[in-house]
Amino acid sequence: MDNIKGYIDENKDRFLDELFGLIRIPSISSIEANKPEMYKAAEYWKQLMLDAGADKAVVLETEGNPVTYGEKIIDPALPTVLVYGHMDVMPVDPIELWDTNPFEPVVKDGKIWARGADDDKGQAFMHAKAFEYMVKNDCLPCNVKFMIEGEEEVGSPNLPKFCQEHKEMLKADIILVSDTGMIAPDIPSITTGLRGLMYWEVEVTGPNRDLHSGLFGGAVANPINVLAKMITQMVDENGHITIPGFYDDVIEVSKEERAMMAKAPFDVEEYKKAIDVKELAGEKGYTPSEHTGIRPSFDICGIWGGYIGEGAKTVLPSKAHAKISTRLVPNQDWEKISVLFKDHFESIAPDSVKVVVTPLHGGQGYVCPIDIPAYQAADKAYTEVYGKRPVPVRSGGSIPIISTFEEILGTKSVLMGFGLESDAIHSPNENFPLEQFFNGINTIPLFYKHYAELMKK
Amino acid sequence: MDNIKGYIDENKDRFLDELFGLIRIPSISSIEANKPEMYKAAEYWKQLMLDAGADKAVVLETEGNPVTYGEKIIDPALPTVLVYGHMDVMPVDPIELWDTNPFEPVVKDGKIWARGADDDKGQAFMHAKAFEYMVKNDCLPCNVKFMIEGEEEVGSPNLPKFCQEHKEMLKADIILVSDTGMIAPDIPSITTGLRGLMYWEVEVTGPNRDLHSGLFGGAVANPINVLAKMITQMVDENGHITIPGFYDDVIEVSKEERAMMAKAPFDVEEYKKAIDVKELAGEKGYTPSEHTGIRPSFDICGIWGGYIGEGAKTVLPSKAHAKISTRLVPNQDWEKISVLFKDHFESIAPDSVKVVVTPLHGGQGYVCPIDIPAYQAADKAYTEVYGKRPVPVRSGGSIPIISTFEEILGTKSVLMGFGLESDAIHSPNENFPLEQFFNGINTIPLFYKHYAELMKK
Question: Nearest-CA residue of chain A relative to B350?
Answer without folding.
Answer: A279
